[in-house]
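Input record, target 12 of the design panel.
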């Protein structure tokens, strides 16, 4: 019999990357296996899981702010049980427990498969912390996928061995490790059986994935993609995030040979200055990065490109920032993510000389984002008049309106008699900075 104070409802709040979204979904599935249900919209949950990200500045402070909002003005009987998961939990678990008595559980990203047993202890009044980093054990302990979204995530690789000087991932997620080939094919098939039409393969450095296929041959990410493309019912494949050092010939070729692999590539560069890239411990130069993109575009001419940028890295000069703008002009990104440098405790860059003033970083970020937004809108305008396949993911704001993604990961909205999960032909008729209006043409045959 469950204790009377066992939570009956939950809410998982995930921050940051798509891998956190995947982890949040899996934690929700585990709670569902315990008979705990999602809290209705607008109602308080008995259990709140804060699935945190440690990449950006003041990440920990945001966690404490959320904890304060959850407990402010509430008695112990009415306050929710709180679990802190994710990378902030991994990096600062002991401090969270000491500083936030309202937190019952702290669990790292490699240990969240033990959340149910931690919950049992918490219900008995015992606060629990688990930030162990076992290799890949958590995946075997997770429940079977029973229901999913039309566009779903599948984590294939975790950790990173690159040790970029600004990044905490090697310390919070551990060394690079690949999930076994057979487990991934099995999970992909179950995702499709549960309703997925598109699967995005996830990893901190997904292009480093390797394994042995069912014939005992060593394959890389391209080999895995080729075999997943054979799964009946799976219409689309994507992958993110990659490192330029691990983009091999087979993966480049796959973009031109596999129809189900979508024409979209997210490949972070971070800066356009070779000196800054070296200080970041990035293994590429601006020139080698551009040549790599040329090879991908030669394999798939309609490829849409996305990237990551950091402005204001320690020591970055005005002239070096201008080199980043020059690289942006040379590429013409369809999408991109850009951030001000923020020192992460324990990383080499945090103690480097030449920390850039906040107002300088603010100005550089505004200029960079203006250039990136310009190019994104230009890419969207260039697709006006095309008819393409759109995967319907959710309803729009207005009756009869639907939202989905084009092959180039653009958001497109349109009206028509369709349903979530349908693949439909849509003419893109009007481009905006962040999305496109479309006109429904026809469904795509299953």
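The sequence produced for target 12 reads:
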């Amino acid at each position: 019999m469950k204790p009377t104070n066992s939570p009956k409802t939950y809410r998982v709040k995930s921050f940051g990357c798509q891998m956190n979204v995947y982890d949040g979904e899996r934690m929700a599935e585990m709670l569902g296996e315990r008979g705990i249900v999602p809290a209705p919209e607008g109602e308080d949950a008995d259990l709140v899981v804060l699935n945190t990200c440690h990449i950006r500045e003041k990440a920990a402070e945001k966690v404490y702010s959320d904890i304060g909002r959850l407990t402010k003005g509430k008695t112990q009987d009415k306050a929710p049980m709180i679990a802190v998961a994710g990378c902030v939990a991994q990096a600062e678990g002991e401090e969270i427990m000491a500083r936030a008595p309202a937190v019952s559980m702290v669990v790292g990203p490699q240990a969240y498969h033990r959340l149910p047993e931690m919950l049992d202890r918490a219900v008995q009044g015992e606060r629990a912390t688990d930030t162990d980093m076992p290799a890949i054990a958590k995946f075997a302990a997770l429940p079977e996928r029973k229901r999913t979204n039309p566009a779903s995530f599948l984590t294939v690789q975790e950790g990173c061995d690159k040790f970029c000087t600004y990044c905490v991932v090697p310390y919070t997620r551990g060394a690079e490790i690949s999930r076994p080939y057979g487990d991934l094919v099995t999970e992909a098939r179950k995702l499709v059986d549960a309703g997925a039409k598109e699967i995005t393969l996830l990893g901190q450095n997904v292009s480093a994935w390797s394994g042995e296929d069912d014939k005992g041959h060593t394959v890389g990410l391209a080999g895995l993609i080729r075999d997943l493309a054979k799964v009946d019912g799976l219409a689309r494949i994507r992958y993110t995030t990659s490192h330029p050092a691990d983009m091999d010939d087979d993966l480049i070729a796959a973009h031109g040979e596999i129809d189900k692999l979508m024409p979209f590539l997210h490949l972070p560069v971070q800066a356009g200055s070779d000196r800054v890239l070296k200080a970041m411990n990035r293994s590429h130069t601006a020139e080698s990065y551009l040549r790599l993109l040329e090879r991908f575009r030669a394999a798939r001419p309609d490829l849409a490109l996305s990237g990551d940028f950091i402005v204001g890295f320690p020591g970055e000069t005005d002239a070096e920032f201008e080199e980043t703008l020059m690289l942006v002009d040379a590429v013409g990104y369809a999408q991109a993510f850009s951030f001000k440098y923020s020192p992460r405790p324990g990383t080499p860059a945090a103690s480097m000389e030449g920390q850039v003033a906040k107002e300088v970083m603010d100005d550089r970020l505004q200029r960079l984002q203006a250039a990136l937004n310009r190019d994104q809108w230009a890419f969207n305008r260039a697709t006006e008049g095309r008819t393409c396949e759109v995967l319907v993911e959710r309803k729009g704001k207005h009756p009869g309106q639907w939202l989905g993604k084009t092959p180039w990961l653009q958001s497109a909205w349109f009206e028509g008699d369709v349903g979530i999960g349908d693949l439909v032909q849509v003419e893109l008729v009007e481009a905006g900075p962040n999305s496109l209006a479309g006109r429904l043409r026809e469904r795509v045959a299953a």
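The first strand starts at residue 9 and ends at 14.
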